[in-house]
Design brief:
Strand content: 35-45%
Oligomer: single chain
Helix content: 10-25%
Largest sheet: 6 strands, antiparallel
Number of helices: 3
Radius of gyration: 19 Å
Strand order of the largest sheet: 7-3-10-11-14-13
Shape: globular
């Protein structure tokens, strides 16, 4: 009788493949387009007391503890393109297996980055799909999402000097 009960236990995992679709809204009230150059990485920080200090740090994959004492420079996991056979897309995926994970998404073409802490608290959720909308026209950092729908993202728009540099004509005369 004990042998038949052994087959009833299934493996339980908290691992998930975070699949991120990133959209960009260039102007207030404008249409959304797919971001084609984003990438993401994650650090298993153990606490939610970590942050990205600047766009330059986001690009360099540097995170700092909230006291500014400790820095990490080698992510625990990095994203790859997520391919589906039914369409062409620019989704990225990030396999997560520890919690909390500080997830950082970078959009180089618009000079933006976003961060969230992902907590793996649901059993056997093999893929988690998230759509993130970036607004480069906003002047100050803002949040997107909810705890119930995959997490709250802190999104940092381009600094004014980044926007000016992107709009400057650099043709030599």
């Amino acid at each position: 009788m004990a042998l038949t009960a052994v087959g009833c236990f299934k493996s339980v995992t908290k691992n998930t493949n975070l699949v991120i679709k990133t959209l960009v809204q260039e102007t207030s009230g404008g249409g959304n387009s797919m971001a084609t150059d984003t990438y993401a990485y994650a650090y298993y920080t153990g606490t939610d007391k970590w942050m990205v200090a600047s766009y330059e740090d986001a690009v360099a994959r540097i995170v700092t503890d909230s006291l500014g004492v400790e820095r990490k420079t080698v992510p625990d996991v990095e994203s790859v393109l997520f391919e589906r056979t039914d369409d062409t897309n620019y989704y990225i995926s990030l396999p997560l297996n520890q919690s909390p994970a500080l997830v950082v998404l970078v959009a180089p073409s618009i000079g933006m980055y976003a961060t969230t802490f992902k907590y793996l608290n649901v059993d056997n959720l093999y893929e988690t799909y998230i759509t993130l909308l970036l607004h480069p026209w906003k002047k100050a950092p803002y949040t997107e999402g909810t705890a119930q729908k995959g997490g709250v993202w802190t999104i940092v728009p381009p600094a004014p000097e980044q926007t000016e540099n992107n709009n400057t004509n650099t043709d030599e005369k």
